[in-house]
Design goal:
Blueprint (H helix, E strand, L loop, with lengths): L11 E5 L9 H15 L4 E6 L10 E5 L1 E3 L7 E3 L5 H9 L2 E6 L4 H13 L3 E4 L4 H8 L6 H15 L2 E4 L5 H6 L7 E2 L11 H15 L6 E6 L8 H11 L5 E6 L5 H10 L6 E3 L6 H10 L2 E3 L9 H8 L4 E4 L15 E3 L3 H12 L2 H15 L3 H18 L3
Parallel strand pairs: 1-2, 1-6, 2-3, 6-7, 7-8, 8-9, 10-11, 10-13, 11-12, 13-14, 14-15
Antiparallel strand pairs: 4-5
Helix pairs in contact: 1-14, 4-5, 7-10, 8-12, 11-13
């Protein structure tokens, strides 16, 4: 990421997050789109994020601080601002009028510092089920988890407003101990604007390009390759339908479980129909994966408000999601997605049923496209309005 020199002293909207391109995940995409549209509105965003050896120009000021890779969560990095004297000087010298942190960890602590030093409002968005991440990362030292969870709670208690991406996330926030008010602010997607005919053409072209036969049901997962996302459920379901239902499966993303997932697929004898594609950062290419899919498989209890479900919906691809999961809040079964139990047998049964009823898939896919797609430009326009109200009412 190229760090641009500040050429003026117009106060910044500070956007703080522990991950930023080239790292790609749902929160990163949220931050990217905030930055893009805030810049278009001349609101002068400035990103504060850990240093990364790969450089990507985002078109705004970026302040980076010392970081090291997280061995158990590659390609993620953890920032260590306490041992980076330069970041504190840069933050002190950079005028901010509002800080918005999308992460409660190192970047969140820097956002609290800026809030207190410059006497500005701080917004914190609760994106992830942090406790699950910590329990995996600290399996050998579980006593660390409650200590870090307290720090997370301290961060959100320091915020002037706490935002969540959908109402069902409140249950998790309360479980973590936060008792303050919450504001629901949707996430958006960048694949909006196509009509039904354009979507149909895109799906046909993508299937042809990827060599997916007419009699094959095309299945897709996009996200971190970690067991918490339910990727084993997908692999086991594919094993169950093998030899009964012709299929093609694409995994997109990376994570600590990717190698073991590949070995599992090999052992099941389905590697010729399953492809692990790694990270796809090109948005036009990822759009083709969504378009080529009949179903988006997402058996995750880990996610709060997954962008990938909405992105798939924009291309007319409905998701299969566990009943009762936080992600299922926006899904009405058989209307804009499919709900089922989070086990391989249930997933396999539903996939086989739907493979024999493509009209059902198309009908629900149309419902998903109609109800789940909201553009990032629309979302960030609402965000900017909320910023203005917060600034107007803020009393240092």
């Amino acid at each position: 990421m190229t760090q641009r020199r500040q050429t003026n002293q117009q106060p910044h909207i500070g956007i703080f997050n522990d991950s930023f391109p080239p790292i790609i995940d749902g929160v990163t995409l949220t931050v990217e789109n905030y930055v893009r549209y805030l810049a278009e509105m001349n609101l002068n965003p400035c990103v504060v994020t850990p240093w990364n050896p790969m450089k990507v120009d985002c078109g705004c000021d970026v302040l980076r601080y010392f970081s090291l890779p997280i061995p158990s969560r590659r390609p993620y990095r953890y920032g260590y601002p306490k041992i980076d004297p330069f970041i504190w000087r840069r933050l002190a010298a950079t005028p901010f009028r509002l800080a918005h942190s999308h992460c409660p960890f190192s970047s969140g602590r820097l956002a609290v510092y800026v809030k207190k030093r410059q006497r500005i409002p701080l917004i914190g968005t609760f994106h992830s089920k942090y406790k699950s991440d910590l329990q995996h990362s600290f399996r050998s030292t579980p006593w660390c988890v409650p200590i870090i969870m307290k720090r997370i709670l301290d961060f959100f208690n320091a915020c002037d407003e706490v935002w969540i991406p959908q109402a069902a996330v409140e249950e998790t926030v309360r479980e973590y101990g936060y008792q303050g008010p919450l504001t629901v602010v949707d996430n958006g997607i960048d694949f909006t604007g196509m009509d039904s005919e354009e979507v149909a053409r895109a799906k046909k072209a993508a299937r042809s390009e990827m060599g997916i036969a007419d009699d094959e049901i095309s299945l897709l997962f996009v996200g971190q390759h970690i067991w918490e996302k339910g990727i084993r459920v997908i692999a086991d379901a594919l094993k169950l339908i093998d030899g009964k239902t012709p299929f093609r499966m694409n995994f997109v993303g990376t994570g600590y479980a990717q190698g073991e997932l590949a070995r599992l697929i090999e052992s099941y004898g389905i590697a010729d129909r399953v492809k692990i594609n790694g990270v796809v950062s090109d948005r036009e290419r990822i759009k083709k994966f969504y378009a080529a899919a009949d179903l988006f498989l997402f058996p995750s209890l880990y996610d709060n408000a997954p962008l990938v479900v909405r992105e798939a919906a924009a291309l007319g691809t409905p998701s299969v999601i566990p009943s009762g999961s936080t992600a299922s809040e926006v899904i009405t079964d058989e209307v804009n997605g499919f709900l089922t139990s989070r086990d391989a047998a249930a997933y396999a049964s539903l996939i086989s049923q739907l493979a024999a009823d493509h009209d059902r898939i198309r009908r629900v896919g149309a419902g998903a496209r109609r109800t789940l797609g909201r553009s990032w430009s629309d979302v960030v326009e609402e965000v900017a309005d909320r910023y203005r109200v917060i600034l107007k009412n803020f009393k240092p």
